[in-house]
């Protein structure tokens, strides 16, 4: 059998609510982009930041003021020895940053990649690594930005890649 398209709509609000018409790709995108994405007053639309990479400098996550906890998945593709993976927090929009919080110290070279998943609770200061287990850190209050970096990022081949997942209800 064959199917015949009898109705095609181009309306950004999908107001006709048709059970049989097919919307355009642009209409679907406009509709989804306009959705209210707040949960308990927190905008969750951009809470998952997929795969950011840095071969130099920092990977920074902004708009963290309502976040209490998050997961971070990270990969270091290769690194020289004496390299550290750090996290820093800011409470003033990134004008100043707190002390380095060591997530992982690499005492020997890594080739072929190092992967880990980390749970961070900003209220309690608890960190939990899949590979290294629990640890306790001290975070400043009123955090609004978090950034990550490798101490030896300027050396060739030291690449950091990570993704962050923030879910409500972990606190």
What does this 3D model show about the protein?
This protein is mostly beta strands. It is 5% helix and 44% strand. It is built from one helix and 14 strands; from the N terminus they run E-E-H-E-E-E-E-E-E-E-E-E-E-E-E. The strands form four sheets. It has a six-stranded antiparallel sheet with strand order 5-14-7-10-11-12, with no helix packed on it. Strand 3 and strand 4 form a beta hairpin. The longest helix is centred in the N-terminal third of the chain and has 9 residues. The chain is elongated and about 65 Å long. About 8% of the residues have low confidence.
Summarize the structure.
With 171 residues, the protein is mainly beta. 5% of the residues lie in helices and 44% in strands.
Secondary structure category: mainly beta
> What's the count of strands?
14
Count every helix, treating DSSP H or I runs of 4 or more residues as helices: 1
- Mean pLDDT equals 74
End-to-end C-alpha gap: 53 Å
Helix and strand run:
EEHEEEEEEEEEEEE
Q: Helical amount among residues, as a percent range?
A: under 10%
The biggest sheet, with number of strands, parallel, antiparallel or mixed sense and barrel status, is: 6 strands, antiparallel
Alpha carbon gyration radius = 21 Å
Low-confidence stretches: 39-52
